[in-house]
Amino acid sequence: MESLVIAGFVRGLSVRDVEATLAEALGPEAALSKSTVSRICEAIKTEFDTWRTRDLTGLRLDYLFLDGSHFKFHAGSRSEPVLAAWGITTDGSPVLVALSPGSSESHDAWADFLNELLGRGLTEPLLVISDGAPGLIGAAEVVLARSLRQRCLIHRCRNVLAKVPKSAQAEVKAEYWKIFDIDAAPGQKAVDEARRRIARFEQRYESEYPAAVKCLTTEVDSLTVYLRFPKEHWSRIRHSNFIERTFGETRRRVKVIGRLPGERSCLSLVWAVLDRASRGWRGVKHTPATTRLLADLRRQLLEPPVSIAPKPNEEVAIETVTAVA
Question: What is the extent of the structural domain holding 45?
Fold first, then answer.
């Protein structure tokens, strides 16, 4: 019943509309009063407020996905982004991490968002996956400087195809994905193989579609980072697309009213949809080999060994003892 109420509100129905719709669909005995509907919606907002300020100290992520989606929730304003973070934990489980409003997807907005997550106890992930929004990329590179960053392959494919005539897009798309469908062990050899394939792509299309080739070759490093991670995870971590469909459905639902009733209502309703959708998201599977590889990457990136140099006095003492001996 709660899910039906949430779905009704996200589709733009008023309290009265929700009440009438439920009565029509389920019969008079299942009808909810206006006060009951309002109480459910207030409970959702309260639950969201608790969720958005919860302690993240115990949440350890291997993979962090970042994206934003635009909604109208301020009177007289154009659509504004809701910044979202979700991830895959060290045990392979998917989790919705955070939502926050932003006046734009600027560097400052994303930096504030990420700094708040760290301030609430979130540890840096091994890998950040995002689209190519400059503000997001810049903020991630500063705030999560030790994490690697993967550019979403699906978004980049769209960018490449946008620079190719429609008559050739199917061919170029097929060749693009051949670059990244690699049958090799994870690590530098897989990265090198992808680079060789990119070079062949460049050689093949440089004269005919130079803009498309440039779009691909300027992002080689960020497009191939995922190849350093377990092969079993590649299909999940090379793009940020699995939440985009949910965001798209939410945007379509709110079009009927044009604007959500306010910032708090917008966030709580978007959260209610994403929270329920996230329960069906797939995580990743771990094997002893994937666990070892991720542990090695964690030591390299986040827990590097610290060189302990002797203090100046200790050096003198050692020299003196040596001289006496």
Answer: 2-50
